[in-house]
Specification:
Length: 173
Amino acid sequence: MFIKIGSVVLIALFLTGCGGIPEDALRLTTQSLELRQMQQKEYSSITERQALVSAANVLQDIGYIIKESEPELGFILAEKDRDATDEAQLAADIFVAVLTGQSSAIDKQQKIKVSVITRKRSDNKMMIRVSFQRVVWNTHNQISRQETIKDKEVYKDFFNKLDKSIFLTKEGV
């Protein structure tokens, strides 16, 4: 009995003493903060319902299909499928195929997912955060990439359209 307890205590001490969590493990990097700033915008004089309706309208206008919507949680998930063919990859593949007789896997198809989250702040302003991700499949039907889209123009374009949609929603158009 004593040996079992001693063994458990010894193993627990060994596991906790081996590493530990670095002090800055949960600290956001500069890149994380920049991405977060691109992904969110605050609005005044808007209800959560108006924010969600406006966001859903924008997503549908730019070709997304709403997959999930949880108004009570302030959440929308949408996605769309798009071609992912990259001309540079295609040219390199043709070059390699001519030289070796073998074709390599190149990007073929992608699924772009977007999530929108709304949050009412204590000062009655509505915070809207959007995040775009994509999964890319190659010509061998394997996932070649999974990534968060970090292009400032994507987020800027979304929020420009959202501004207009919120205005129209508030006006009842």
